[in-house]
Amino acid sequence: MCGLVGFLGGALWDDADRCRASLVSMTNALVRRGPDDADYWLDPQAGIAFGHRRLAIVDLSPAGRQPMRSPSGRYMIVFNGEIYNHLDLRARLEAEGSAIAWRGHSDTETLLGGFDAWGVRPTVERAVGMFAFAVWDMATRTLTLARDRLGEKPLYYGWQGRGRERTFLFASDLQAFKPYPAFRGMVDRDALTQLMRHNYIPAPHSIYEDVAKLPPGGLLTLSLADGNIRHETYWSCIDQYRSGLQSPYGGSSEEAVDALEALLKKAVARQMMSDVPLGAFLSGGVDSSTIVALMQAQSSRPVRTFSIGFHEKGYDEAKHAKAVAAHLGTDHTELYVTAEQAMAVIPRLPEVYSEPFSDSSQIPTFLVSQLARRDVTVSLSGDAGDELFCGYNRYRVVAGIWDRLQAKPLSWRRLAARVVTSISANNWNRILGLMMPMLPMSLQFADVGDKMHKGAGLLRSRSLDDVYLNLTSHWLDPASIVLRSREPTPSMMDVATQLDGFGNMQRMMALDMLLYLPNDILVKVDRAAMGVSLETRVPFLDHEVVEFAMSLPAALKMRAGTTKWILRQVLYRHVPAALVERPKMGFGVPIHDWLAGPLRDWASALLDESRLRQEGYLEPGPIVRCWKEHVAGKRNWQYPLWNVLMFQAWLEHQKRPVS
Question: What is the pTM of this model?
Answer without folding.
Answer: 0.93
